[in-house]
Amino acid sequence: MSQQTISQVEELIKTKPVFVASKTYCPYCSATKKLMKEIYPEAYILELDTMEEGSEIQDALAKITGQRTVPNVFINGKHIGGNSDLQSLGKEKIKKLIG
């Protein structure tokens, strides 16, 4: 994994109000995307399994967060975690975090 990829991922985390790393076939990712669509349809979602550099992005996320699994959710630069972490916050708290 290149330093350039790490920098690109860090930039997405910093600049996107909601950033989700996902995979199209993952049921937990589907649950996260469904919830985010209700709360913040503008969420920036990367489908790692459809991207040539997807595994490298996933490696960069693991290095940055310590979490290798998807979904990997960030709100306003803060690492939320996975689907269960997001769901446990509830819609109102997620809305507050987004601002």
TrEMBL record:
Top-rank lineage group of the source organism: Eukaryota
Claim: Transcription regulation is one of the keywords in the record: no
Signal peptide coordinates: none
Pfam families from the UniProt entry: Glutaredoxin (PF00462)
Keyword presence, Transport: yes
Alphabetized CDD domains for the sequence: GRX_GRXh_1_2_like
An example Gene Ontology biological process: cellular response to oxidative stress
Gene3D superfamilies hit by this protein: Glutaredoxin (3.40.30.10)
One GO CC term, this protein: cytoplasm
SUPFAM superfamilies: Thioredoxin-like (SSF52833)
Domain Glutaredoxin: 18-80
GO molecular function, one term: glutathione disulfide oxidoreductase activity
Catalytic activity field: 2 glutathione + H2O2 = glutathione disulfide + 2 H2O; 1-chloro-2,4-dinitrobenzene + glutathione = 2,4-dinitrophenyl-S-glutathione + chloride + H(+); RX + glutathione = an S-substituted glutathione + a halide anion + H(+)
Record key words, sorted: Disulfide bond, Electron transport, Redox-active center, Transport
Entry-linked NCBIfam families: GRX_euk
PANTHER family: GLUTAREDOXIN 2, GLUTAREDOXIN-1-RELATED
Protein name: Glutaredoxin domain-containing protein
Organism: Pichia membranifaciens
